[in-house]
Specification:
Elements: H1 2-15, H2 23-34, H3 44-59, E1 63-72, E2 75-76, E3 80-85, E4 105-106, E5 130-131, E6 136-140, E7 142-144, H4 150-158, E8 167-171, H5 177-186, E9 191-195, H6 198-201, E10 223-224, E11 260-263, H7 265-272, E12 302-307, E13 309-310, E14 313-323, E15 332-338, H8 350-368, E16 376-382, H9 390-406, E17 407-412, E18 419-426, H10 431-438, H11 451-455, H12 472-478, E19 483-490, H13 503-509, H14 515-533, H15 539-553, H16 558-581, H17 586-593, E20 613-615, E21 623-625, H18 627-634, H19 638-660
Parallel strand pairs: 5-10, 7-8, 8-9, 9-11, 15-16, 15-17, 17-19
Antiparallel strand pairs: 1-14, 2-13, 3-4, 3-12, 6-12, 14-16, 18-19, 20-21
Helix pairs in contact: 2-8, 8-14, 9-12, 10-14, 15-16, 16-19, 17-19, 18-19
């Protein structure tokens, strides 16, 4: 049976294989190399991927550094989620799992194997878990907290729902999973179970894996729940995590204290169908399960969550490949994507890592022909991103002074090629460069038209703002390097952070022709070329700051509102001055860009030093332009609003000082 399945898989993949020698064929080969086995950070599979990437970069003729780091990455033990008491008329199944008890229903914490995909039998795949969960064994009544956002917990308080001593049941989505846990812990919950809602990414969306690409009942999203106010190794904030670095005590840094476990919707259904408590107060909280969704489980339903791990400082590494530029002006371009995964990682991250590898190859070939990038370019494969942008942060912390002086821009490719519909986010100062590059790259949807021609609206390609959640964060938010995020979407399905994130899932769901990955490779090469000769336009940040101040002013007190408008006028004037002076010198443009960096950092988040942009403090993924002011408004804190405008005024002072230099 296994041999037959393997043959069927090989034939299916061969029949859809891209033409030999094409870019698509090379992308497929990169994919097969890097998705050959599970490679969670710090495991033997991780070490093999690091060596494969380093060896491949060397074969391309690039200068390679393997940059090791030692980070706090706890190793999990198998968790337990059980229904230990249930309402009358809802019997519990007899135990089937090893160690299960009579009268107790043990819920699945790993995906089912599927005969169609031999990779799922790999011994390196693990049960699902949430990195940095608190340890403990807790049993209690259940309360459904919707997506577990700050607003959701506020609604529960308004309704008089007491979460003390309860097990919170939250669905994925709406915010970073770690904030669900943080808010539950603050509310007094003793444990949390996070599930995938079938309405969000299961059968309500379409056919489920393996019949279609959407999550089946046993698919489970893993992931870190670290919400510390800094990226990187939790024990070495602000400094490189070398082997012998001075480290903080894990108990002192504010990692979660309650046990947390993710499950699939098949397991979650067993909890939901036994709930007998209060009805929902908001119909928008309804889930995709059959029958009504209830808010509480009632006193007869009790769930146990037991989580343990082995504390460990673990070694992993970044791979940094340098391609010398044709022009020695001191400028630097950095392109990056992480290499670690929760399993095979065919989509996350390798749908971006393969673009990184092929873009490096294309640029190296152009350099050999004498027409490579003008500026020095680094192609970087980051380690342990899944635990909290660890590898990229440790490298940025080591190289921050160099980056502040030299780096024109950073391009991030995390999980980039997930379809053929192009999109990008960018710092304002790099948006002109992205627009121009998009005019030179054919769309995968219609190769006769450029990305710009196909996607432009009102004369411009729509570009998003960068938030958090990936390796651009230390560059943008800590070192002040303007950044770009590229992606292509549109595939119908998700295997996000699950064991089903395999080559077979990717090729069946996203496509075996690698059209989106080829398009993004060309766009990455075009951006490297454009950043090699172009200069950021820092006037755009000033204009965006002015707009942000004006849009926020209405939510401030009259005095603060007046000051916000005055400050907005000042930034508008600075934008005009910068635009008229056209600082084409790289050093001058970067000096203006660095004026947004405040060494004191944001209040309560000192590692986040960029007062223009950061991730949303309460969601993790979203964007906050003028983050200090956004936090003040969210907290209704007039003193914080004043302090934020002081920081912004100081940034304006620094910009004026740079512009006054001869």
């Amino acid at each position: 049976m296994i041999v037959t399945t393997l043959m069927m898989l090989a034939l299916a993949q061969a029949s859809a294989a891209p033409p030999e020698g094409s870019m698509a064929a090379r992308l497929a080969a990169w994919h097969e190399l890097l998705a050959a086995e599970p490679h969670m950070a710090g495991t033997p599979g991780d070490a093999k991927v690091i060596e494969s990437i380093a060896s491949s970069f060397r074969d391309l003729g690039l200068e390679v550094e393997v940059h090791p780091f030692w980070a706090y990455l706890p190793r999990p033990r198998e968790p337990i989620v059980e229904i230990v008491a249930t309402p009358a008329g809802m019997p519990l199944a007899e135990p089937t799992a090893p160690g299960a008890r009579r009268g107790v229903m043990r819920l699945a914490v790993r995906e089912e194997n599927l005969a169609i995909d031999p990779q799922l039998a790999h011994a390196g795949l693990t049960f699902a878990w949430n990195a940095y969960s608190g340890q403990g064994d807790a049993t209690g009544e259940v309360v459904f907290v919707n997506y577990g956002t700050r607003a959701d917990f506020a609604r529960l308080r308004e309704q008089g729902i007491d979460l003390r001593g309860k097990v919170c049941l939250a669905r994925y989505g709406g915010n970073f999973r770690g904030f669900k846990v943080k808010f539950a812990e603050q509310a007094g919950a003793i444990a949390m179970v996070i599930f995938t809602d079938p309405a969000d990414s299961g059968p309500a969306k379409g056919a489920t894996w393996p019949d279609g690409g959407w999550a089946n009942a046993s698919c489970i999203q893993r992931g870190s729940i670290n919400t510390l106010p800094y990226s990187g190794d939790p024990l070495t904030p602000g400094r490189e995590a070398t082997e012998h670095a001075e480290r903080l005590d894990p108990a002192s840094v504010g990692l979660p204290r309650i046990p947390v476990q993710p499950i699939g919707y098949g397991a979650a259904r067993e909890i939901v169908r036994r709930m007998r408590g209060a009805p929902l107060f908001d119909p928008s909280w309804a889930t995709g399960f059959e029958g009504p969704t209830l808010l509480t489980g009632g006193p007869e339903l009790r769930v146990r969550v037991a989580v343990a791990h082995e504390p460990a400082v673990v070694q992993s590494a970044n791979v940094i490949a340098r391609l010398p530029g044709r022009v020695a002006d001191g400028g630097l371009v950095v392109v990056g994507c992480h290499h670690d995964a929760w399993g095979f990682g065919a989509a996350d991250p390798l749908a971006g890592t393969i673009v990184l590898m092929e873009a490096a190859r294309e640029c190296a070939m152009q350099a050999k022909a004498g027409r490579g990038p003008a500026r020095d370019t680094l192609f970087c494969a980051w380690g342990a991103e899944e635990f909290g942008m660890v590898g990229s942060t440790e490298w940025v912390e080591r190289e921050r002074a160099m980056l502040e002086e030299r780096c024109v821009g950073y391009i991030n490719l995390d999980m980039a090629a997930m379809g053929v519909n192009f999109g990008a986010s960018a710092s304002p100062s790099l948006r002109g460069i992205v627009q121009d590059a998009a005019k030179r790259v054919p769309s995968a949807v219609d190769p006769a038209r450029s990305l710009f021609d196909l996607g432009a609206k009102d004369g411009a390609l729509p570009l998003g703002d960068l938030g958090g959640g990936s390796d651009h964060q230390p560059f943008l938010c800590h070192a002040g390097v303007p950044s770009i995020g590229l992606f292509a979407g549109g595939s119908q399905g998700t295997s996000y952070h699950s064991n089903y994130d395999t080559l077979l899932w990717y090729r069946r769901t996203v496509g075996a022709d690698y059209a989106g990955a080829s398009m993004l490779t060309r766009m990455t090469v075009a951006l490297v070329d454009a950043l090699g000769t172009g200069t950021p336009e820092p006037w755009r940040e000033c204009a965006a700051a002015a707009a942000g101040l004006r849009s926020t002013a209405a939510r401030l007190s009259p005095d603060a509102s007046a000051r916000a408008h005055t400050l907005a006028d000042r930034f508008d004037a600075l934008a005009g001055t910068i635009k008229r002076s056209s600082p084409t010198q790289r050093e001058r443009a970067q000096a203006v860009q660095q004026c947004w960096i405040d060494p004191a950092g944001l209040p309560g988040r000192q590692w986040f030093r960029n007062v223009f942009a950061s991730n949303d403090r309460d969601s993790g993924y979203g964007t906050w332009v003028l983050p200090g002011l956004q936090a003040a408004v969210a907290d209704s804190d007039p003193a914080a609003a004043t302090a934020s405008m002081d920081q912004l005024g100081a940034a304006a002072d620094r910009i004026e000082a740079v512009l006054a230099r001869p």
